[in-house]
Amino acid sequence: MHTPQPLVALLLAAVAFIAATLAAVTGFGGAAVLLPVLVAVFGMREAIPILTVAQLIGNGSRVWFNRHELDWRVVGWFALGGVPFAFAGGMLFARAPLSALTRLLGVFLILVVVWRRLRPGPPRRPPLRSFAFIGAGASFLSALLGSVGPIMAPFFLAYGLVKGAYIGTEALSTVVMHVVKLGAYGRTALLTAPAVIAGLALGPIMIGGSWVGKRIVDRLPEWVFVLLIEVTLVAAGLLFLIRGG
Question: What is the pTM of this model?
Answer without folding.
Answer: 0.75
